[in-house]
Amino acid sequence: MKLIKETSVLKPSCKYFGLFSRLYKSRIPGAVCCDSFLRFASETIILCQCTRNLIFIVLDVTVRLILDCQDEPDNFQHDSQAVMSKKGRFLMKIVSRKKASSGRVREPLVRNMRKRYQLWLMLLPAVVSIAVFHYGPMYGIQLAFREFDFTKGLTGGEFVGMKYFLKFFRSFQFADIIRNTFAISFTSLLLGFPVPIILALMMNQIRNKGMRKTIQTIFYAPHFISTVVLVGLLNVLLAPNTGIISSMLGLFGITGNLLGDKTAFVPVYVLSDIWQHAGWNSIIYLAALSSVDTQLYDAARVDGAGKWQTIWHVDIPCLTPTMIIMLILSMGNILSVGFEKIFLMQNSTNLSVAEVISTYVYKIGIRSNQYSYSAAIGLFNTLVNFAMLMLVNRISRKVSETSLF
Prior knowledge:
- This protein is an all-alpha fold.
- It has helices at residues 2-6, 11-26, 36-71, 80-95, 97-102, 109-115, 117-135, 163-169, 174-192, 194-204, 209-220, 227-237, 244-250, 262-281, 283-290, 294-302, 307-331, 339-345, 351-354, 357-367, 371-399; strands spanning 146-149, 153-159.
- It has a two-stranded antiparallel ribbon with strand order 1-2.
């Protein structure tokens, strides 16, 4: 039994058996699990899968035994007792495969690079890009702890410690900026995270390839619109007197300048962001759905599950790991609200709810030339994002055993 549990090729059969069990126990409306013929068919499928996997195990063991005997011809003995002991040792190796894999001696890095130089060359541009544009600027982090002086450079200024961090925490704008940033980020995450998943599930149900490609193109196209163009469209469509959307909302009693209204700024920002990026963000979920084993759909169809039951019992469980990873990555950018769109949508009437960390750092650092102060605020933003990433990743690893690391 340990051999079967530790052998990975039996996992698909266990998955099919678990699916049949869940569908049967849940008593899906319209399902015909009670029918003896369908139960016999499902059990036959499971039996065939188990038989096939057992054959693969026997073949794998046989080939590995032959190769093992060829690698050590001096130790090979013709008597059956020695051969059986060797088979027993090999089977024990399979049973303890996971434990043994952790104790293997890894190949030296230089030898690995020489052996697989093509893969390393393909990886080189990404490594150089991350090193230059992500790790290189970390040299300037010390600016947050120094009094910047143009004549002395980054490292020549006087060390002031936590002066600028305390200055930001004691600022009268601190509470408003943090509140605005969290409000926009959490609203975008709450409303924008499920939409790509729903779009992916809907497009996955379309069987007509031409129709599917047309719908995908329609939803992907807004992602390639420039932020400046998008904000210009919002100004035209939401103009108080001539805007199409404003005129339509006026029929329901909603009037006024929506871009200048404090209560309407966050909904306009979030909804326009969802419209622009929801289709593009659904690509990763469509890729995850394309890798789902078609035999799972066949098994659900045999048990009489409809489309809603198939989505609930097959599609969503297969998407869950991807959803968790994307949620962790989203929480790692909880305070990183995009600068361009917020800055372009700001005006004198909505500034009290539109001022976020990114725009405040720009105004303090570039316009006011307070580089050390803006560096301290940016470092605080990064540390909060990193803390949120680690916290959510740890919770996810304990709850669902799915995490980034």
